[in-house]
Every structure is written in C-alpha cells, then in structure tokens.
Specification:
102 residues; mainly alpha; Cytochrome Bc1 Complex, Chain D, domain 2; two-stranded antiparallel sheet; 6 helices; 49% helix; binds heme C
C-alpha cells in the first residue's frame, strides 16, 4: 500500500462511501465500484466522476452527482482511482489498509 492508495482510501470514504458503500462494495443506492472498474478504464471513470451520470431505473432515477467542481475529489482523483482499481483487481482487501511509512 503506497501513500497514494492510502490517500485514495481516505478520500473515497469521505466523498463516495455514502452511496457506493464501504470499500467500494456498492449499496442500495449505487453500483459496486469494484465490479464497475473491471469494465471502466481511467478515462471513462474520470468522465463519470467529473460529469455525473443518471439513469432511469425500475425503482426511480439513479443519480451519480457531478464532482467536477469539488476540489476534495478532483485534486485526489488519481488516488481514488488507484485505490478502487486495487480493490477491483483483488490486490487490496476490505477494510482500512496498512499505512506505509513515508
Ligand atoms: C449521492 C450518491 C453518490 C455519491 C456520493 C457518489 N456516487 Fe457514484 N454513482 C451513484 C449512482 C446512483 C450511480 C449509478 C448511476 C447510473 O446508473 O446511471 C453511480 C455511478 C458511478 C460510476 C459508474 C459505475 C458504472 O458501473 O457505470 C462511477 C465510476 C462512480 N459512480 C464513481 C463515484 C466516485 C469515485 C464517487 C466519489 C468521488 C462517487 N461515485 C460518489 C451515486 C453516487
């Protein structure tokens, strides 16, 4: 676990966790991102987080907000992606990662 991934873990749990669930596992509101990142590349991921996404489902609209003007997310997007990608590739387990020195 490098510093960037650890930062991504923290940022994810500040900004995304309420909808996407702990450790990216998804919830009743929003999809499981550890699954999504098997199909989405970095550019597609970035586009969705910057612009948001919306689709009409059987149980009503599902709205992914746009984070394009949120510096807490935009300044850390690479790290958030790195964290979720590591989760998606099974390189990182659930829960709080060990912090590396430095
Ligand atoms: C208010 C709830 C909410 C928050 C907060 C939120 N999301 Fe989402 N997100 C959603 C919903 C709902 C969808 C599904 C949208 C759809 O189906 O069109 C989604 C979809 C996505 C997708 C596309 C998944 C796919 O399989 O197509 C990505 C990537 C994503 N979110 C990343 C993030 C990241 C990163 C954050 C934190 C910076 C975040 N989301 C915060 C609700 C949220």
């Amino acid at each position: 676990m490098d510093k960037g991934t650890f930062n991504g873990f923290r940022r994810y749990h500040n900004s995304c966790h309420v909808c996407h669930g702990p450790d990216g596992m998804g919830g009743s509101f929003a999809p499981n991102l550890t699954e999504s990142l098997k199909a989405l590349d970095y550019y597609k991921f970035t586009e969705i987080v910057v612009n948001g996404k919306q689709s009409a489902g059987a149980t009503g609209d599902r709205v992914m907000p746009s984070f394009g003007t949120d510096p807490n997310v935009m300044d850390n997007l690479d790290d958030i992606y790195r964290y979720l990608k590591a989760r998606s590739d099974d390189k990182l387990g659930r829960g709080r990662p060990e912090r590396m020195p430095g």
